[in-house]
Design a protein that fits this description.
By secondary structure, the chain is an alpha+beta fold. The protein has a domain of 65 residues. It has four helices and five strands. The strands form two sheets. Strands 3-2-4 form a three-stranded antiparallel β-sheet, with no helix packed on it. Strands 1-5 form a two-stranded antiparallel sheet. It is flat. Keywords: Signal. This is DUF4124 domain-containing protein.
Length: 166
């Protein structure tokens, strides 16, 4: 029995240590020539600086997540009695302002997309004077393609927001 006790204590210590893990990694803030900031886990590109972050500790809870049935049986949270109320006229004005702002943003984003597509020229934009190196040209074309994709996603998101208002 005395011979089993050290092994049992070692096993208990290992299982306790396995329950707590430290997640630590280096994080770099990279800024490209256009001023776009991006966080990366490697700082091997130009314009990257290491960011000092406080250590994170990840622990395992050991419990299973609640099932949908358990979550559905909880009563809905009610609004406190002293919560400020807004009259219908004010709310309609706010909704109309929001709709107008979203429509303006949508119009601007659609114009931006049209300009980007015009410059992109179906994947063959005109080369600029500083792009004697073909790799620089390809990099700019890839960046333009990403900008077009981002703009299309913004338009989709604005259309979703507008459809939720109606």
């Amino acid at each position: 029995m005395k011979r089993l006790l050290p092994g049992f204590l070692l096993l208990a210590a290992v299982s306790i240590a396995a329950g707590t893990a430290h997640a630590q990694s280096e994080v770099y803030l990279c800024v490209d020539q256009n001023g776009v900031k991006e966080y990366k886990n490697t700082g091997d590109t130009k314009g990257c600086k290491r960011v000092s972050l406080p250590p994170l500790t990840v622990t395992s809870s050991g419990s299973k997540p609640a099932r949908e049935g358990a979550a559905a049986s909880k009563p809905a949270a009610s609004t406190p009695t002293d919560f400020p109320k807004v009259d219908n006229g004010t709310q309609k004005t706010r909704d109309n302002d929001r709709r107008q702002i979203l429509q303006d943003e949508l119009k601007n984003e659609q114009q931006r997309l049209a300009d980007l597509k015009k410059d992109y020229n179906d994947g063959t934009p005109e080369r600029q004077g500083n792009e004697k190196n073909y790799a620089k040209y390809q990099e700019r074309v890839a960046s333009m393609k990403e900008d077009i994709s981002r703009s299309e996603k913004n338009i989709d998101a604005l259309n979703r927001e507008l459809s939720n208002l109606k």
